[in-house]
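SAMPLE LOG
Freezer: B-3
Tube label: C17
Construct: single chain, 293 aa
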Amino acid sequence: MKSGRKKLKRYSFVLPAVILLIVITIFPLVYSLTLSFFHWDLRRPLGWRFAGFSNYARALFSDHRFHRSLITTGIIGVSAVLLEFLLGLGLALLLSRKLVGKRILTTLLVMPVMISPVVAALMWRMLYHEKYGAINAILRLLGFGTGPSWLGSPHLAPFSVVLVDAWQWTPLFMMILLAGLQSIPIEPHESALVDGASRPQVFWHITLPMLKLSIIAALLIRLVDVIKLFDTVFILTSGGPGSSTETVSYYVYLVGFRFFRVGYAASLSYLLLAIVVVIALGFLRILRRREVG
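STRUCTURE (predicted):
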């Protein structure tokens, strides 16, 4: 009897967390997966029709707008992550040295990560304004004319989105790589310098290989995150001009909440999830090979 009460007491502690997990995570996951196999238009709430794999087939083979959004996401994502990595590595190397006011500088550099992406996008939208924005005002003062339309040009809009993303998330690379640099022992560097190696050679042949795990971890975090890029695009350009900044996540939003094809939007979401899983598994395989090596 006492053992039964003890078990019941243990379960009573776990039960709220299990219920919360089912309601918030498991049920929406199962529901959305089921929904992806149906044709369902929100304008006809009772008009569910079983679609099988036709939603997935359409997305993979005939939805050219989805394919274009994948390419746009790849271009913006790879450009942003590459820029963030290079800037983050440079800042990490700078902060790994002895500097005056290092703590204040580090705090200021980390601040963009603490800002909500929506707030950051709103702030940059004001800065990018063609007529009243601070960026074009500075260009006019320097004698470069009226300045370009940063968010209205199909050529400049993707670059503008990349710049905002890099401004906000470069500090994340900086912090991860700085932690990696601080964990590297100093003896190999000193030995190499004593043997006559130059500082670029020490960095390329000693520092960078010992920093590989931190680099892979940072790249994995940001690549997975940038594939889901939505809020910055939503605030800055709404996928425009045209479809020059229409990412996959924004296209899924349009399909589900503008075109009301919820079943098809669910299937697109699961294809996006599959892409994220493939990328994550690829990086994890690289990490395992690194550990074995």
